[in-house]
Amino acid sequence: MLRKRDLAVSRIVIIGMSIAWKMAKLSFTDVDGNMFGYEVIELETLSPFAIEEMTGGNWDLTLFTCTVGGQYRVTIRCVLANGGA
């Protein structure tokens, strides 16, 4: 069950390889067992040097990984689904 809760960090950025980025929704469970649901809102392709663009903005969650060949970064922007509830 997804619960609305204040996060210790207001924005989260996760860097990873081989992220399954074609999802429309995803969820994470914190160390206390609380689940947070997110909705994918936007996909961007950025330069690997565009650090400000990768970490900036008012997104609840940002995921990014390398494109095939590593020339660019696929950046996935998400917001809390249903206010996190």
Chain-wise SSE layout:
Layout (H helix, E strand, L loop, with lengths): L11 E4 L9 E5 L5 E12 L4 H5 L5 E6 L6 E8 L5
Structure description:
The structure is a single chain. With 85 residues, the protein is mainly beta. It has one helix at 51-55; strands spanning 12-15, 25-29, 35-46, 61-66, 73-80. Strands 1-4-5-3-2 form a five-stranded mixed β-sheet. It is elongated. It starts with 11 loop residues before the first strand and ends in a 5-residue tail after the last strand.
Structural class: mainly beta
- Order of strands in the sheet with the most strands? 1-4-5-3-2
For the largest beta-sheet, the strand count, sense and barrel status come to: 5 strands, mixed
Strand content: 35-45%
Summarize the helix and strand pattern as letters: EEEHEE
> In angstroms, what separates the terminal alpha carbons?
8 Å
In total, how many beta strands? 5
Helix content: under 10%
Extract low-pLDDT stretches. Answer: none
Would you tell me the overall average pLDDT?
75
Overall, the morphology is: elongated
Radius of gyration: 13 Å
